[in-house]
Amino acid sequence: MKDSTLKKLREIVGSQSVLTAKEELLCHSYDATRRSALPEVVVRPENVEQVAAVARLCTEERIPLTPRGAGTGLSGGSVPLKGGVLLSLTRMKRIRELVLEDLYAVVEAGMVTEELQTTVEASSLFYPPDPASQSSCTIGGNVATSAGGLRCLKYGVTKNYLMGLEAVLPTGEVIATGARTVKSVVGFDLTRLICGSEGTLAIVTAATLKLIPLPEHRVTILAAFKELEQAARASADVISAGATPSILEIMDPVTVSVVSRESETVLPPESEGCSLLLAEADGFREAAEIEAERVQKVCSDSGAVFLRKSSETEERENLWQARRGVLAALAKLKPITILEDVTVPRSRVVEMIRSIEEIGKKYDLLVATFGHAGDGNLHPTILLDAPFTEKAARVEKAVAEIFGKALSLGGTLSGEHGIGIDKAGFLGEEIGEHALETMRRLKEVFDPEGILNPGKLFGGAESES
Ligand SMILES: Cc1cc2nc3c(=O)[nH]c(=O)nc-3n(C[C@H](O)[C@H](O)[C@H](O)COP(=O)(O)OP(=O)(O)OC[C@H]3O[C@@H](n4cnc5c(N)ncnc54)[C@H](O)[C@@H]3O)c2cc1C
Question: Which of 270, 280, 305, 441 has its CB surrounded by the most CB atoms within 10 Å?
Answer without folding.
Answer: 280
